[in-house]
Amino acid sequence: MSKERKEEVIRSTQRFFAEKLEIELSELQAAFLVDYVFHEIAPFAYNQGVGDAQKHLVQLAEDLPGTCFQEPLTYWDAHDSSHVVRRKPEKT
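The structure assignment produced for this chain is given below.
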């Protein structure tokens, strides 16, 4: 995490404790708490995200033939002007 982002998280943590728990945390205390949460608790969420992404990719891979199928032998359907015989309109 960037230094700027960590500072934002620390400020948010201080605000949470002050507003919700009526506890004033110093910047150092909040930083220790943020480090603890990131090292001890955040891996649960990270691992869940990896698992969810893996499930999603497996589903996409299983449906690959359905989403990436290309019908063969369609050239003449799209380009079939060679066998059309064009005649000069008859004069009436």
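Interim note for the steering committee: The longest helix spans residues 27-62. The CA atoms of residues 50 and 56 lie 10 Å apart.
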